[in-house]
Amino acid sequence: MMAYLQTPEQIEQALESVLLSVEKPGRYVGGEFNSVRKDWESVRVRVALCFPDIYEIGMPNLGLAIFYDLLNRRPDMLAERVYLPWVDMEAVMRREGIPLYSLETKHPVSRFDLLAISVPYEQLYTNVLQVLDLAGLPIYSRERDESMPLVIAGGHACYNPEPLADFIDLFVIGEGEEAIVEIADHLARLKQAGASREEQLAELARLEGVYVPRFYEVAYHPDGTIAEVRATHEAARLPVRKRIVPLLPPPLTRFVVPNIDTVHNRVPIEITRGCTRGCRFCHAGMVTRPVRERSVEEIIAAIEEAITRTGYEEVALLSLSSSDYTRVVELVKAVSERFAGRNLSISLPSLRIETSSVELMEALKDSKRGGFTFAPEAATERMRAIINKFIPDEQLLETARAVYSRGWRTIKLYFMIGHPSETLEDVQAIADLSKAVLAEGRKVHGRKASVNVGVSTFIPKPHTPFQWVPMDTLEQIQAKQTLLKRELRGPGLRLRWNRPEETMLEGLLSRGDRRLGPVIARAWELGSRFDAWQEHHRHEAWVQALEEHGLDFYFYTHRPRSIDEVFPWDHIDIAVRKNFLAQDYLMSQQGETRIDCRNQCFACGILPTFTGVRRQLPPEAWKCPPVAPRGRKDTPDVIPARSL
Fold first, then answer.
1. Exposed, middle or buried by CB within 10 Å (0-12, 13-18, 19+), for 591?
2. What distance lies between CA 307 and its chain's CA centroid?
3. DSSP codes joined into one string, 14-36
């Protein structure tokens, strides 16, 4: 391992001589408005908060921004930001011996007590190794010693932590607002008491939502499937239940304003967390249960304070399904009245496909009129029933008419190919429905109307009813995309799609087990990093890494799975019962749907798990029915499993 510069002074001096030689030096200098710089020696614990991608991608990440604010509010704690350098800066850093450093004080990451890495999607896995290596840390957790920071990871891609188990000291499963401060507090106390690294991990493993991979062993059947997961340390929980924040804290309003343009230059305000719609492909909708909401008054106050503190002129009101926010009409009216005439753009993403959604956006008086986005996900009523997102075709066309008639000229439609039981006729229907929507626009705007069609490929994510479903093969994906490229041409139509090889990688990593650890390391050694960037994706490196370790895509992505198979993530408890997911999967095979579970509880597991939590909440904050009935009579309450 190469020798790196050790002090902030050395790093700052080196940066002065090299920054003008790289693209966008503003990525690497820090000093942004609202950033926090504390005295390094005045605190008990120092946390490096890392998003393992470039500055422009990581800066808008709301989760890391919240942790930054929460930790820095504590006078005895310090949090600083770390992003991955782009390839030109990486070459300079390796040449000059500049380690990965924090933006605030330019301290090397290796000097912090805790390195907390956000991993919202699987294509960041090789970037995580890049972060560790550039920081001068061994990539394997067992090779790191007492002088090095504990490495913690969290985010949606960590609900299956197994592919990264070799590299991460501990994972936070679930929501991190309370957990990150609690972990930092415990770590400060343990270090002060002289606890060893192993003792620190054992103590932290006792906390709810904390998973320390080295305290577990996995046994496999001869066919490669998992036989069981065993806890090997008395401090290790089994299963590891996700962490939940019972009542959403006040929204963040003091955002760090970036030095350069980023992917989202706006104030994000989360209005609700969780979803009750039950789309069977949707990972976020399952793992973020239960639904919790903020009050209209709190949201309005947060918008006012945030735009005052930052100067932003755009606000995004975030949720998985904005139309399902209980007081959405009242919120839109309040926003329109409070911020009228202030040249403020307010967006309300994730709206349902119905005319009332159009009326909501019309009430916000969005002057940009750039485009209106809907996600039908499938183009036939049969397929929408299978995925539990049933919308009649006529309702979609009626909504399109309402959008165009109110002045929008572009509608963006998002679909998915590769759903269970999908045929080429279902794929053809994507083109037909898109053309039908465009025809509605032409009636209003003539040739100025347009439809942008985004088509991704279904991946059976962990902890969803479709986790038993095989993915399409590379050849099937290519055939479906070829059909769409042929059919969706001409004036007013624009098609965007994902490269099949990138989809295959995401499927591999999201469904992987611990045996993928060496594969990830080998792919990284072969040059894989920035796998989410099309121009940097190296499919051949992943194929080679799998072959060298006797593994293949088929085992993880394409083979059918029995209903009783033990998944690599089954010891991670999201508080939604596996039996419930299995029942829903069996329903999908019959084309049966479930209604919104705000209207009828289907006993997914959230209510009994969090009964004690629920008593702490005001009635308006919790959006589940009061009583959970038993499961469906025509499906078993217990699905046989091998063992866990």
1. middle
2. 25
3. HHHHHGGGSS-GGGS----BT--
Read off the pLDDT band of 614 (50, 70, 90). Answer: low
Residue 178 lies in a domain: yes
440-448: Cβ within 8 A, 24+ apart? 440/397, 440/400, 440/401, 440/404, 441/400, 441/404, 441/409, 441/411, 441/492, 442/492, 443/401, 443/404, 444/401, 444/404, 444/405, 445/404, 445/409, 447/491, 447/492, 448/409
Q: pLDDT of 399-414, one tens digit each? A: 999 999 999 999 999 9
On whether residue 47 sits in a domain, the answer given is: yes
User: Of how many residues is the chain composed?
Assistant: 644
CA dist 353 and 399 (Å) reads 6
Measuring CA to CA, how many Å separate 154 from each of 135, 201, 556? 19, 16, 23
**21 within some domain:** yes
Q: Report residue 636's pLDDT band, with 50, 70 and 90 as the boundaries.
A: very low
What element of type H or E holds 607?
helix 606-609
| % of the chain beyond a pLDDT of 90 | 84
Q: How far is Cα 564 from Cα 554, in angstroms, rounded to an integer?
A: 19
Give pTM, 2 decimals.
Answer: 0.94
C-alpha–C-alpha distance, residues 199 and 88, integer Å: 40
* Tally of domains in the chain: 1
- Asked if residue 111 belongs to a domain, the reply is yes
pLDDT tens profile 118-140: 999 999 999 999 999 999 999 99
- Structural domain range at position 221: 8-241
